[in-house]
């Protein structure tokens, strides 16, 4: 088993996930492609859970994982230990993203219900009457157009990315500890006489 190769694979997977999280979070600022006033954008977007949590906090350990899983079988124990600490940071970022994405899905978007005032029409509803399970209530939001679908898709993407990154970083914590204790690679034993 080579913990360095495992570390490298996880690092490679984290890069596109982090990029998708950053793009998804940025798109939440422009519902349906429109530029709105700052006060008309859903409040949970301002926690930067995709940009900071699943983005930057995932890219940092990804770089370290690539370095710790570099070519060769040098027992890079220091790099593996550092990847453990950064993976814990990435794990926290993934959980942070997943939690705020869940809250965004449950609470619903900020929208104009037709009177020109932006409110959260779906907050404080029980799960039984939640808008996610009752698509007929979506017509409450008049502006921005398709805001509910926009929020559901993007918050769902961020929730999935955050959860996947948290799992990958947790795997890397275990992998990094094994690599730190045992070394990054098991070398094949070669016979001195060439037999």
UniProtKB/TrEMBL annotation:
<feature type="transmembrane region" description="Helical">
    <location>
        <begin position="148"/>
        <end position="181"/>
    </location>
</feature>
<protein>
    <recommendedName>
        <fullName>Transmembrane 4 L6 family member 1</fullName>
    </recommendedName>
</protein>
<keyword id="KW-0472">Membrane</keyword>
<feature type="transmembrane region" description="Helical">
    <location>
        <begin position="80"/>
        <end position="106"/>
    </location>
</feature>
<keyword id="KW-0812">Transmembrane</keyword>
<feature type="transmembrane region" description="Helical">
    <location>
        <begin position="12"/>
        <end position="32"/>
    </location>
</feature>
<keyword id="KW-1133">Transmembrane helix</keyword>
<comment type="similarity">
    <text>Belongs to the L6 tetraspanin family.</text>
</comment>
<dbReference type="InterPro" id="IPR008661">
    <property type="entry name" value="L6_membrane"/>
</dbReference>
<feature type="transmembrane region" description="Helical">
    <location>
        <begin position="44"/>
        <end position="68"/>
    </location>
</feature>
<dbReference type="Pfam" id="PF05805">
    <property type="entry name" value="L6_membrane"/>
</dbReference>
<dbReference type="GO" id="GO:0016020">
    <property type="term" value="C:membrane"/>
</dbReference>
